[in-house]
Design brief:
The complex is a heterodimer of chains A (306) and B (300). Chain A has 15 helices and 2 strands. Chain A is mainly α. Chain A has one domain: MetI-like (MetI-like fold, Orthogonal Bundle), CATH 1.10.3720. In chain A, helix 9 packs antiparallel against helix 12, helix 10 runs antiparallel to helix 11 and helix 14 runs antiparallel to helix 15. Chain A is globular, with a radius of gyration of 24 Å. Helices cover 73% and strands 0% of the residues of chain B. Chain B is globular and about 75 Å long. Chain B has a domain of 175 residues: MetI-like fold. The longest helix of chain B is centred in the first third of the chain and has 34 residues. The chains are: A mainly alpha (306), B mainly alpha (300). At the A-B interface, helix 1, helix 3, helix 5, helix 6 and helix 7 of A face helix 3, helix 5, helix 6, helix 7 and helix 8 of B. Chain B: InterPro entries: Bact_Polyamine_Transport (IPR051789), MetI-like (IPR000515), MetI-like_sf (IPR035906). Chain B: Its main location: membrane. Chain B: It is a multi-pass membrane protein. Chain B: It is found in: Cell membrane.
Chain lengths: 306, 300
């Protein structure tokens, strides 16, 4: 109590104090009680399944008995995953990277307008960003397939302008990237909005007052202030996009646009005896993404994420 | 063109030299005025364009809910014209309403459990110092950094090869378990952000006014964190309701609404799916706006 009173007396300095309010005084068993149920859930349904998936990725199949495996340390599954499906990995990373880039370009102005220009419309815009989730992303992706179809409005216009040499959008990488960009856009908008909302608009105005032009103000003031949001947004877009198979399945072609997700899905459900290779593919994908995430976070460093 | 406009502007200013100071003041050249107008509104215009883009497929879904199609709801049947028959009979397609009910049930249970567990975790992480705190932070972050397909695949292997021993079969409850798992991390992140932005002086003031720890929590801390918790619950429900990839791995014979749409895609999606998809969108918007209005009136 005395500590608390001292803090109040101390006025403004309290807020900058990194120690949580009274946290040090609480006995730690409360913390463990709070952690227990959620932690147990994550242990049972996240950690243990991953360990199981890892052991499956090392299993071997009985020759002549597809669908039966025995416990083994068969690193060959990873060899198969990396050599046979290298193209799929490359495509996943490339498409996800492109989609993340386009999503950033589209999301930033929207997040900026929500944070600084929307006024009382702010919450309405927020609803507009989340609400399409309720139409189901499968339905919306199939809608895109019809909108981008060869005789649809977009393809016809591009063909008329001679901007579409192949003559198709669907069944090509363009449709897959467009679908990924569209589907994960809200995951880019929300974190950028959250970090811009916390930023002080007066700092940005100060940039203008000091005779920086619009672009300079954006590059040196606005963008750095929103960096935690941009990092979170790019991760939340890139990761699901790299693991997605629905867009490639519904918008892409049967051969040239398949991503890793499509291979994993078909190895699990359609290829008898495909479990170990599918598990190895999953693990490689996860390791690849986690490595990129940690490098990325280290490079642009933010503690706020973790 | 540019030169002439500039000259005209400059000329205009010169001739009006004496009067300008008293009447209108300085007017920048026309081209510059247009540029400033766009620069000031660029973000708003771009934002509206992006919002329209977000709604294009929703509008498509809406329009095709009126299609009087013969075989599959892909091409607009111009001969028959728009029809209301799918709206009058939204459960007309076999299985579509069962799938919707399953999705709503899964979403509700997963949201309640994930919000409670996630909020507890967020309080522990922000308000307590304990051993393994940074490890817990990483453990909670990693599910968000794991592609859904890996989560689905790992859950499928453990459900089939491990937990089936305890009588757990693929179906409704495995979907619920999986959804709770991936929602927890999003709840923790949302509630944590809210907790961190709280002014600790408010709680200290409550304690100074002789509120006990329980009183401080339920009458000060909790109401302040509540908007974050509500936001987390909304996010959980929308993520659960729209999930397909993980659900597809762990659902067995059970069908949720997204899975229903995906599975019926090859045979042709019934227009009832469009009706339901668009209605859910409208209901969600209406509920959130109603919540906003109630929240605003309470604040007054």
């Amino acid at each position: 109590m005395t500590v608390a009173s001292a803090h109040v007396a101390g006025g403004g300095t309290t807020h900058a104090d990194p120690a949580p309010a009274g946290g040090a005084r609480k006995r730690s068993w409360t913390a463990y009680l709070l952690l227990l149920p959620g932690g147990l859930w994550l242990l049972l349904f996240f950690v243990i399944p991953l360990v199981q998936l890892f052991t499956v990725s090392l299993q071997s199949g009985f020759p002549g008995y597809p669908g039966y495996y025995y416990r083994d340390v068969n690193i060959g599954n990873y060899g198969t995953a990396l050599t046979e499906f290298a193209g799929h990995f490359g495509r996943s990373l490339l498409y996800a990277g492109l989609a993340t880039f386009f999503a950033f370009i589209l999301a930033y102005p929207l997040a900026y307008a929500m944070a600084f220009k929307a006024g009382k419309w702010r919450n309405v815009m927020m609803i507009c960003v989340i609400a399409p989730f309720f139409t189901s992303f499968i339905l919306r992706t199939i809608a895109w397939r019809q909108i981008l179809a060869d005789d649809g409005p977009v393809a016809s216009t591009l063909k008329f302008l001679h901007l579409l040499p192949g003559g198709h959008i669907t069944e090509t990488w363009m449709a897959v990237v467009a679908g990924l960009t569209y589907n994960f856009l809200p995951f880019m908008v929300l974190p950028i909005y959250a970090s811009l909302e916390r930023a002080d608009a007066r700092v940005i105005e100060a940039g203008g007052d000091l005779y920086a032009n619009g672009f300079t103000t954006f590059r040196t003031v606005t963008l750095p202030m929103s960096m935690p949001g941009v990092i979170a947004g790019t991760l939340l877009t890139f990761i699901p996009a790299a693991g997605d198979y629905v867009n490639a399945d519904l918008l892409g072609s049967d051969r040239s646009t398949k991503m890793v997700g499509n291979v994993i899905e078909s190895q699990f459900f359609k290829v008898l005896g495909g479990f170990p290779v599918a598990a190895a593919l999953s693990f490689t994908l996860m390791a690849l993404i986690l490595a990129m995430v940690f490098l990325y976070i280290r490079r642009f460093g933010t503690e706020e994420l973790l | 063109m540019t030169a002439s406009t500039k000259a005209a502007a400059v000329g205009g200013r010169r001739t009006a030299d004496g009067a300008a100071d008293t009447a209108g003041g300085y007017r920048p050249p026309a081209l510059q005025r247009v540029r400033t107008w766009f620069a000031n509104r660029f973000a708003i215009i771009a934002a509206i364009v992006v919002l329209v883009y977000l709604f294009v497929p929703v509008a498509y879904t809406f329009v095709f809910s009126f299609n009087d199609y013969r075989k599959s709801n892909i091409v607009w049947n111009g001969d028959a014209g728009p029809t209301l028959k799918h709206w009058k009979n939204p459960c007309g397609a076999p299985g579509v309403c069962d799938a919707l009910v399953t999705s709503l049930k899964v979403g509700s249970i997963a949201t309640v459990v994930a919000t409670i567990l996630g909020t507890m975790l967020a309080f522990a992480l922000v308000r307590h110092r304990f051993r393994g705190r940074s490890t817990s932070n990483v453990l909670i972050f990693i599910p968000m950094a794991t592609p859904e397909i890996v989560l689905g695949a790992s859950l499928l292997t453990i459900f089939v090869q491990g937990f089936s021993r305890f009588g757990l079969r693929l179906g409704f409850w495995t979907i619920v378990i999986a959804h709770i798992m991936f929602c927890i991390s999003f709840v923790v992140v949302t509630v944590k952000a809210r907790l961190q932005s709280l002014d600790p002086r408010l709680e200290e003031a409550a304690q100074d006014l002789y509120a006990g720890p329980g009183g401080t929590f339920w009458r000060v801390t909790f109401p302040l964190v509540l908007p974050g918790i509500v936001g987390a619950a909304l996010l959980s429900f929308s993520l659960s309701f729209d999930d397909f990839i993980i659900t597809n791995f762990v659902s067995g014979d059970e069908t949720t609404f997204p899975k229903f749409v995906y599975v019926s895609y090859l045979r042709g999606i019934p227009a009832q799916a469009n009706v339901i998809g668009f209605s859910m969108f409208v209901i969600a918007v209406a509920l959130v706006i109603a919540g906003q209005v109630i929240g605003n009136s309470r604040r007054k």
